[in-house]
Amino acid sequence: MPSTQRNVAEIEDARPTESPPGSDYQEKEPVREALDDDPVYSYAEQRKIIHRLDRRLITIAGIIYMNSLMDRSNLPNAAIAGMLVDLGMAQGFRYSTVALVFFVTYTIFQPPATILTRKIGPRPFLSGICLAWGATMVGFGFVQDWVVLIPLRLLLGLFEAGYFPGVVYLISTWYSRFDMQKRYAAFYCLGLVASGCSGILAFGLQQMDGLGGLEGWRWIFIIFGLMTVAAAILGWIYLVDFPDVAVDKHHWRFLSRQEIEFVIRRINKDRDDARRERWNFRSWLSAGADWKIWMFALQFFSLTTQAYALAYFLPIILRDNMGFSIGESQMLTAPPYAGAAIVMFICAWVGDKYRIRGPLLFFSATLGLIGLPLLGWAGSPAARYIGCFLTCACANGGIPTVMAYQANNIRGQWKRAFASATLVGFGGIGGIAGSTVFRSQDAPTYRPGVWACIVCNIVTVTIVIINSIIFKRQNSRAEKGEVVLEEDPNFRYTI
């Protein structure tokens, strides 16, 4: 329990004069006037508060996102498990069409998602749409005509559209700027590893072929859907609210009112935008005038194009390009995602410790510029498989970095809401592109798709260079008092 201090001098003494290396937990100075009953937390107590928040918010949000990624990307596993043959989808563009239509509704309905998350509340809204898409997934298991998959995928995109922008926005309201990338990495990593392991799980579920008179690929959809329904129930019980709303609620048990107030003070000291803002459509929409938001969104598009291309086609590429069997192709999807998770956490640790973002995106894009030529032109299957590792690390390892890059360089509740929706909306457009870049007529080398992904990495590198030049110049001008950045004289851009 925190000790109660009696004056400002004692408050200052209660805090370490310096944070341990790489840490952002401590409050170095009081954010408001100290009161007799104002609790002040030691560094160890602050860590415990933030870690309790991590266990509640990041874990539950990550579990739901894990199901989200598995549900949208288990199509290729079902495809090679017999769905293509049973539903006659091997002809023309049928498979690509089914994969693509998901992103039509997924992209269109993302912009209002952050608004609905705010207005309805994270727990009922996010867990409710999770329940809806879980039920939709179960329906996939009973389809008799491939055409029926199209409205089901449209429904899946509609329900999933709200989750990612809503939860990215929610996480950004609870953490200071240089705590975010590790949290985004942990959240995204749960989904990433699940995407890799979904092939292994799908291979196991495929062995249920004939059970209940259903083919193995149908059980893949049914079991994944039931897992999502269970995740929705977990979210309804454990998802957290926004800090400015939670502080006034009395049913919370994992953080006290005083501990939530500490989190709010910490955020206000970092970027001064934890206060609740009255809903204003003009304020929300006017954020679109900020050029930075579109630069971050374009980088996110470049990364998600590659990430979704791998999610939808990696098992097929392993089978067609490298000659592996169906079972081997499903099993061998996991190692590249495990490698990407390692790269992701290294980037997150370095980024938060040294307070950098752009150079890490430069690094991850470079991995792709090495891996993609290997995938497209290397002679041996082993070298092409290494190309899969590097490309997967590039795309998936860079996504949390872009999320933190954007969150670190904007201020304001509704601007943050608009930016989150825009970022993820461009991710949906990347999904549309990613579902079409590896065309069946380009098998087995898929070189046009490889070239498309190379261009995406060149775009990412170019934007990093442009941002870095402008941010350094603006920070220098702010230090001289020539400009005020993000309406806060103390704010500086993160390079």
Question: What's this model, at a glance?
Answer:
By secondary structure, the chain is mostly helical.
Task: Kindly list the characteristics that best describe this protein.
transmembrane helix; mainly alpha; 495 residues; two-stranded antiparallel sheet; membrane; Growth Hormone, Chain: A; 71% helix; transport
Describe the protein in words:
Keywords: Membrane, Transmembrane, Transmembrane helix, Transport. It holds the Pfam family MFS_1. This is Major facilitator superfamily (MFS) profile domain-containing protein. With 495 residues, the protein is mainly alpha-helical. It has helices at residues 8-14, 43-73, 75-86, 94-108, 113-120, 122-140, 149-160, 163-174, 180-206, 216-238, 243-246, 257-270, 281-286, 291-320, 326-331, 334-354, 358-377, 381-408, 413-437, 447-479; strands spanning 3-4, 39-40. It starts with a strand and ends in a 16-residue tail after the last helix. A two-stranded antiparallel ribbon has the order 1-2. The relative contact order is 0.12. Helices cover 71% and strands 1% of the residues. It has one domain: MFS general substrate transporter like domains (Growth Hormone, Chain: A), CATH 1.20.1250. The longest helix is centred in the last third of the chain and has 33 residues, at 447-479. The model is unreliable at 1-36 (pLDDT under 50). The radius of gyration is 23 Å and the shape is globular.
